[in-house]
């Protein structure tokens, strides 16, 4: 368990396993993109488009998982270990059910969903195959997301990292085997990539489940997975639903933006997919620092160490900003060569290269937004981040993207400009909110007025 009184639980100690895990997830996506590019650029466009669709559907269960993660960190910080345990169990059960529903929907109507989202008609057959197979495994994504979140927020950030390593090794091996027909495997192209994705995630679920059952002081038993504690679930939703709205704003706005890009053509869609891969690498360390800061701040806040929690946000922002700027500079200098690793199409490379300078401006804004936004979420101020996301993402990132990118004909340049403005606006507003400390002081005062708090008795005999 995470003990904030010990020096070994510093921001970096929490962050580096998260970074390795995110890097491995990035590697999974990059290898997917690189290997799929050997099939065709159309296949790459389908994978990039489908992944945006999958992210949109994950909002249903990440709402619960994210809220549960913050609450677990807070409860452990205030030594309410049984509460934290019940929260973890409920989050896993509910999100697994939601993931199963998503799987059924995507298996039933993959091409119809792609048509509604304006995917070019000639890509529909490939999309139908990929969405039905990978989307059919949404239940695995739900289970992975929740178990990883629960495990990380108990202080064990290394466990999910090791699982990510194993998943990547299996996925890369199976990708190579199915795409090129190596080692006696059939040469199944994009279908093989989809099967490889599901198989590697199934392995990850098995390993994470073994960790999850042992992630608290008392081992979770199978019969406890039916436990439901209404007051604690209400706490999850109180924090989680604004997070879900916030996340859905981002995911659905990105999905709509992808549909805008799809109307520009398959080359633009493929270029955006390749750039998304490179940008993800650029922001990996910044994202891991912001995630670690959220865990640290939630624990400190739960333990009543408000001043330390307040300062931790700025420290995470300063460290993260340095790393993302350096990474963005490297990408700016070598971006064209990196794009050349994915495709030989000079049109796609030229489109991607035209966005490298804009990415250099974008990344510091993302770090500002994520570091301060995560800090606000860690203390339960999730409604503020929801409100600014509703306004900024829909009016600027989505609405203005259509005006500049499609209506006025500026294409990807216009869309990227709106994404930059959106990130900086939300980041600045989050900074002002955190600097004012209004919610921080209010929450601390309320905490001091309450008794030590409820400790939930085990729902079953342990």
UniProtKB/TrEMBL annotation:
<dbReference type="InterPro" id="IPR048279">
    <property type="entry name" value="MdtK-like"/>
</dbReference>
<feature type="transmembrane region" description="Helical">
    <location>
        <begin position="346"/>
        <end position="363"/>
    </location>
</feature>
<feature type="transmembrane region" description="Helical">
    <location>
        <begin position="128"/>
        <end position="150"/>
    </location>
</feature>
<keyword id="KW-1133">Transmembrane helix</keyword>
<feature type="transmembrane region" description="Helical">
    <location>
        <begin position="281"/>
        <end position="301"/>
    </location>
</feature>
<keyword id="KW-0472">Membrane</keyword>
<keyword id="KW-0813">Transport</keyword>
<protein>
    <submittedName>
        <fullName>MATE family efflux transporter</fullName>
    </submittedName>
</protein>
<feature type="transmembrane region" description="Helical">
    <location>
        <begin position="86"/>
        <end position="108"/>
    </location>
</feature>
<feature type="transmembrane region" description="Helical">
    <location>
        <begin position="189"/>
        <end position="213"/>
    </location>
</feature>
<dbReference type="InterPro" id="IPR047135">
    <property type="entry name" value="YsiQ"/>
</dbReference>
<keyword id="KW-0812">Transmembrane</keyword>
<dbReference type="Pfam" id="PF01554">
    <property type="entry name" value="MatE"/>
</dbReference>
<keyword id="KW-1003">Cell membrane</keyword>
<feature type="transmembrane region" description="Helical">
    <location>
        <begin position="162"/>
        <end position="183"/>
    </location>
</feature>
<dbReference type="InterPro" id="IPR002528">
    <property type="entry name" value="MATE_fam"/>
</dbReference>
<feature type="transmembrane region" description="Helical">
    <location>
        <begin position="313"/>
        <end position="334"/>
    </location>
</feature>
<feature type="transmembrane region" description="Helical">
    <location>
        <begin position="53"/>
        <end position="74"/>
    </location>
</feature>
């Amino acid at each position: 368990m995470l003990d904030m009184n010990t020096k070994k639980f510093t921001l970096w100690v929490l962050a580096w396993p998260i970074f390795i895990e995110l890097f491995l997830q990035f590697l999974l996506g990059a290898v997917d993109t690189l290997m799929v590019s050997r099939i065709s650029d159309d296949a790459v466009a389908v994978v990039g488009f489908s992944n945006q669709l999958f992210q949109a559907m994950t909002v249903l269960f990440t709402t619960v998982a994210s809220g549960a993660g913050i609450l677990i960190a807070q409860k452990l910080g205030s030594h309410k270990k049984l509460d934290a345990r019940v929260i973890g169990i409920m989050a896993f059960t509910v999100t697994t059910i939601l993931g199963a529903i998503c799987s059924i929907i995507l298996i039933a109507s993959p091409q119809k969903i792609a048509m509604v989202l304006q995917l070019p008609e000639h890509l529909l057959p490939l999309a139908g195959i990929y969405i039905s197979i990978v989307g059919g495994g949404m239940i695995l994504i739900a289970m992975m997301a929740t178990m990883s979140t629960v495990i990380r927020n108990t202080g064990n950030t290394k466990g999910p990292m090791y699982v990510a390593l194993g998943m990547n090794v299996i996925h890369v091996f199976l990708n190579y085997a199915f795409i090129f027909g190596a080692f006696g495997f059939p040469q199944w192209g994009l279908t093989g990539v989809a099967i490889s994705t599901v198989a590697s995630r199934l392995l990850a679920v098995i390993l994470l489940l073994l960790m999850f059952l042992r992630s608290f002081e008392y081992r979770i038993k199978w019969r406890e997975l039916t436990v439901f504690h209404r007051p604690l679930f209400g706490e999850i939703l109180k924090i989680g639903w604004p997070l879900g709205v916030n996340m859905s704003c981002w995911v659905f706005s990105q999905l709509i933006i992808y549909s805008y890009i799809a109307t520009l053509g398959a080359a633009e869609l493929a270029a955006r997919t390749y750039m998304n891969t490179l940008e993800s690498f650029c922001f990996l360390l910044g994202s891991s620092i912001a995630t670690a800061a959220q865990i640290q701040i939630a624990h400190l806040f739960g333990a009543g160490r408000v001043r330390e929690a307040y300062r931790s946000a700025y420290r995470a922002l300063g460290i993260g900003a340095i790393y993302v700027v350096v990474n963005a500079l490297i990408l700016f200098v070598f971006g064209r060569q990196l794009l050349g690793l994915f495709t030989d199409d000079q049109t796609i490379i030229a489109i991607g290269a035209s966005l490298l300078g804009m990415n250099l401006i974008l990344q510091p804004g993302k770090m500002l937004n994520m570091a301060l936004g995560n800090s606000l979420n860690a203390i339960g101020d999730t409604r503020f981040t929801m409100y600014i996301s509703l306004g900024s993402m829909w009016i600027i990132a989505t609405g203005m993207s259509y005006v500049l990118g499609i209506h006025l004909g500026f294409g990807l340049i216009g869309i990227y400009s709106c994404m930059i403005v959106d990130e900086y606006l939300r980041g600045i507003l989050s900074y002002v909110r955190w600097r004012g400390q209004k919610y921080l002081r209010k929450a601390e005062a309320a905490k001091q007025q309450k008794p030590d708090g409820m400790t939930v008795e085990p729902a079953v005999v342990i």
